[in-house]
Amino acid sequence: MPSSPDPRTTTATGADVRVRFCPSPTGLPHVGLIRTVLFNWAYARHNGGKLVFRIEDTDSARDSEESYLQLLDALRWLEIDWDEGVEVGGPHAPYRQSERHGIYREVLDRLIAAGAVYESYSTAEEIDARNEANGRAKQLGYDNFDRGLTDEQKAAFRAEGREPAWRLRVPDEDLTYVDLIRGEVTFPAGSFPDFVLVRAGGVPLYPFVNPVDDALMGITHVIRGEDLMPSTARQLALYGALVDAGITTFIPRFAHMPLVLGEEGNKKLSKRDPKADLFLQREKGFIHEGLLNYLALLGWSIAPDRDVFSLEELVAAFDIVDVNPNPARFDQKKAESINGDHIRMLEPADFAERLVPYLSAAGVIDASPTPTQAAMLAAAAPLVQERMQLLGDAPGLLGFLFTDVVTYQDDALASLPANANEVLIASVGALELVPDTEFTAAAVQDALAGTLISPVEDGGLGLKPRVAYGPLRVALSGRRVSPPLFESMELLGKSESIRRLGALVDARG
Length: 509
Prior knowledge:
Blueprint: E1 18-21, H1 31-47, E2 50-53, H2 65-78, E3 84-85, H3 101-113, E4 117-120, H4 124-133, H5 151-159, E5 165-168, E6 175-179, E7 183-187, E8 196-198, H6 206-216, E9 221-225, H7 232-244, E10 253-257, E11 260-261, H8 278-284, H9 288-296, H10 311-317, E12 328-329, H11 332-345, H12 348-361, H13 371-385, H14 394-398, H15 410-414, H16 420-432, H17 441-453, H18 465-477, H19 485-492, H20 494-508
Parallel strand pairs: 1-2, 2-3, 9-10, 11-12
Antiparallel strand pairs: 4-5, 5-8, 6-7
């Protein structure tokens, strides 16, 4: 007879929904981790429920305070908030596992009293020897031998100086649950042995503390990566024991998000891949709205024909049951394109303000811009907002407006036509005729077009715009690509624009 999900599984909806984000503070935050918190956050906000942020820091060899602070930095930059947990407190404090050992001991004592766990003295060598003697494959691991130890046998082990581990007495029955993303899943009886919750010496393990924290904190929905799906069977077994012992009253619902693959092949996006490094993406110039929009698309969509949406629209539409179980591939170019769409959605003043850290880091402007720098930035930012995908492009695109020294890029110099000096000299002559008080982008364009573009019979050079204006762009910015040419000249002013055109003539000799 097929098994069915445990009737004690939660039916929580709406404001009763409680999800959690529980990373280990190891290494730098990566995009897979951020997608996990994003989906949990969006589900909580969509339902009007709660997001709990706790830290799983029991691995002292790998955990670090630096990584913890980086997690906080990441979430604050992304503007993902939480309702309970580290830094904000709540009714289930403390929210760091390293501070909860007394709680775990109390829960273990209650499981012991309920007969859900038992003392285990078997060493790895003894388990292997028994498996070999019984013709049982070693990879099957523990054989539940200690389940039936007598009091005398336990006393004998203790007399040898052995300390017991504590193992859960796994029920001999199928375990079934309905994955909110993948549908019904059944783990057959006997598919895994009794497993250790607490090591000899009293060290609690992840398969114990993670579900215990979820139970004590009232987590109703566990939304996590597909790679953790195999551990669900053990968690269901432990949850059954926790309910029987009166430690919680329900079993949470589970949802396992699809893997995020790298751009090539079918391998999971490595944490060591630069594209997975959240801070590297921020350094390149992602804004949080654009990055979160893209990460939401790794397994979910707001509509079949729509990729760009606001965080408010994400929250309004998001439901975990709509997530696709198939692997999602990280596409850097698409991510940057979507980021560009969000940059264009920013208010001009907001956009200009977000450019400051990137321009400052490159030494283009001060960290707190001077009034002159602020005025130039406010005027220049709208010129590039429509064409920028990453804020990190700002120093290259705008730097020439904040300095008197133009550095010519090699590829820009190589792009100059043979008649570049002729074009530059003619342009200087045209610009000198524009009155200082009328030196606007429109006036500049008219003057230059009349001199450079007009047919020879009309007194011009008869050049195509690309040939005519390319040398001017290089002279002003040192680059082949820059903000709109005539607007840039207006910002630089008449005398500076003419000086730069002449400087390139001199540099070419």
